[in-house]
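Got a spare moment? Tell me how you read both lines of this record:
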Amino acid sequence: MELSCPSLEEFLLLREKVGWGKVDADLAQTSLNSSLFHVVIRLEGLLVGMGRVIGDGGLFFYIQDVVVDPEFQRQGIGALIMNNIEMYLAGAAKKGATIGLLSAKGKESFYARYGYLSRPDKMLGCGMCKFN
């Protein structure tokens, strides 16, 4: 495990392996460079999982790109990534901050283990997003 940014090439390949499609390399590099926190998991030098936190570093933090190579899923790698993200957030996100994420369909229970709530519920409305 490393608390470092993956290379652009590794990031793009891992996205493709999980079916997230291709993105412009310049946009991806800008995104990686702008992250607040990174964690990567390597086995024998190969990137097999990663996660990062983006946001303003004050009121809003957003968990992004928690992803594990399909060949290495169900081995605790996702939990290792999230545990490191949660440790970072415990120090960085002060009382009053909001931590958000978008879960892949069917993965909600994974994030619920860390205290994340599904929306909508009795208190919160539906989350929304827009893709350009």
User: Anything to note?
Assistant: The chain has one domain: 8-113. The first helix runs from residue 8 to 17. Residues 8-113 form a domain with the Aminopeptidase fold (CATH 3.40.630.30).
